[in-house]
Amino acid sequence: MQDIPLTAEAFRQRLFAWFDEHGRKTLPWQFDKTPYRVWVSEIMLQQTQVATVIPYYQRFMDRFPDVFALAEAPQDEVLHLWTGLGYYARARNLHKAARVVVEEHGGEFPVDSVEALSTLPGIGRSTAGAIISISTGRRAPILDGNVKRVLTRLHGVEGWPGRPAVERELWVLAERYTPEERLPDYTQAMMDVGATLCTRGKPACLLCPFNDVCVAHARGEETRFPESKPRKTLPERTTRMLVLRDPEGRVFLQQRPASGLWGGLWSLPQFDDEAALRAWLDQRFPRAQREADGAAFTHTFSHFRLVITPSPARLHEPFSSVGETGELWYDVQAPASVGLAAPVKTLLDQAVT
Question: Does 349 score more than 70 pLDDT?
Answer without folding.
Answer: yes
